[in-house]
Design goal:
single chain; alpha/beta; 7-stranded mixed sheet; 8 helices; 7 strands; globular
């Protein structure tokens, strides 16, 4: 991890966040460390690392099954798709390795489901404290999520009241909501995530985007 920090580490004040819905900075030479929590098949983390060679991308997931192909790919020679600026770690959000403490300039959580979805949406302390622990002060946490009546898991409707309630809970833990807005299926079609592409062509449902900052 010391070697990664030496090459890709960036002070948060110098970091320009990647964004897909607000025309934020994108570029190959901007340094920084990005963590993709619940990386699934690893395609989002892979595409971020490939498009932003100055940034180191760490994909985290508790299951190795979906990661086998992408994890094998990053260790190939660069001319065959290998990426020296990507790494995959097997861990749950409740058990993130201590080696990650304080390194993240930006965290992405794309379409969490089941326990991770519940932890994020309900602002459960264990999940958000873990995210805060691996973040630099000032780091950005981007969350993209969806659920409907069939998979609500007793979750609240994502309306203004919900956002206000979540805002109050997070502020008590040193986290501030910068952006909270609904998204349409069309906006997901260009998002570099396997689930985004699947959902954008599926049944009609609401999608929500949050950008949160560690303060």
């Amino acid at each position: 991890m010391e070697k990664i920090l030496a090459v890709y580490g960036a002070a948060q004040a110098e970091y320009e966040p990647l964004g897909f819905f607000d025309n934020d900075a994108e570029g190959k030479k901007i340094v920084g460390i990005i963590v993709d929590v619940g990386t699934g098949d690893g395609s989002f983390a892979y595409q971020l690392a490939e498009a932003n060679t100055g940034r180191f991308v760490i994909g985290i997931d508790p299951s190795h099954k979906g990661l086998v192909e992408t994890a094998r790919k990053i260790y190939r020679k660069p001319e065959k798709g290998g990426l020296p600026n990507a790494l995959f770690v097997l861990a749950s959000i409740e058990d993130l390795p201590e080696e990650l403490n304080g390194i993240a300039n930006q965290i992405f959580i794309n379409f969490p489901w089941s326990g991770l979805l519940r932890s994020i949406v309900l602002a459960e302390p264990s999940a958000w404290e873990a995210l805060r622990r691996i973040s630099q002060k000032g780091a950005f946490i981007d969350v993209l999520f969806t659920y409907d009546e069939k998979d609500r898991l007793a979750l609240p409707a994502a309306d203004d009241e919900y956002i206000q309630n979540m805002k109050e809970r997070l502020e008590g833990r040193g986290l501030r909501i910068l952006i909270a807005k609904p998204l349409g299926a069309e906006q997901l079609k260009s998002y570099p995530s396997t689930w985004a592409k699947r959902l954008s062509h599926g049944q009609s449902r609401q999608y929500f985007y949050l950008r949160i900052q560690v303060v």
